[in-house]
């Protein structure tokens, strides 16, 4: 199984992306968004997670609940315990199969990329390292407010991430360091937003690569 593959959980949520493989407590976990594999809190520990072909690749284990009704969210993340027979593999530019070396905080104007399921990439730059204003993102048809996100602007004017790219891990273009995980796109369809790992996801889960 490779990162950037399409995954899903049965429910009202759509399909999204397996962002990365991480270790915690001696076990391997796959990472994506709550709104991809935890059905916006409408889930149970142990729910099966599927690849795009309908094969079970693991079981839901952890998620940070998403808050609606105007409450502010800081992360959109969920983990599943990886149980597939095939070894976990990272899809990286010029280093596919290798692991990212580490996590890094978002840097203003830093160049980043995501890998799409077909192996192509989208590139952009970090226009805001940590947003301070509340962002209204639509996840699975519902509105959620977020702050402390990474804003990413594409280099070519086309959207950095499109619907279905949620869960994609954002990496630095020059050395494949992990920056964040895509959670949504602005209403104008151009800028995209990612939850940071440093001062974000790692505050909730002690993940190692």
How does this model look, in words?
The strands form three sheets. Strands 2-1-5-6-8-4-3 form a seven-stranded antiparallel beta sheet. Strand 1 and strand 2 (16-17) form a beta hairpin. It folds into two domains: 6-82, Thrombin, subunit H (Beta Barrel); 111-198, Trypsin-like serine proteases (Thrombin, subunit H). It has 209 residues and is mainly β. It has one helix and 16 strands.
| Percent range of helical residues | under 10%
**Given the helix and strand composition, which structural class is it?**
mainly beta
Summed over residues and divided by their number, the pLDDT gives a mean of: 94
What would CATH call the architecture of the largest domain? Beta Barrel
Strand order of the largest sheet: 2-1-5-6-8-4-3
Number of strands: 16
Shape descriptor reads: globular
Our estimate of the beta-strand percent is: 35-45%
What is the CATH class designation of the largest domain? Mainly Beta
Q: What pattern of helices and strands is seen along the backbone? A: EEEEHEEEEEEEEEEEE
**Biggest sheet overview:** 7 strands, antiparallel
- Can you tell me the CATH topology of the largest domain? Thrombin, subunit H
Low-pLDDT residue spans: none
- How many independent structural domains? 2
In brief:
The chain contains one helix and 16 strands. With 209 residues, the chain is mainly beta.
Descriptive keywords:
209 residues, mainly beta, Thrombin, subunit H, 2 domains, seven-stranded antiparallel β-sheet, six-stranded antiparallel beta barrel, 1 helix, 16 strands, 2% helix, globular
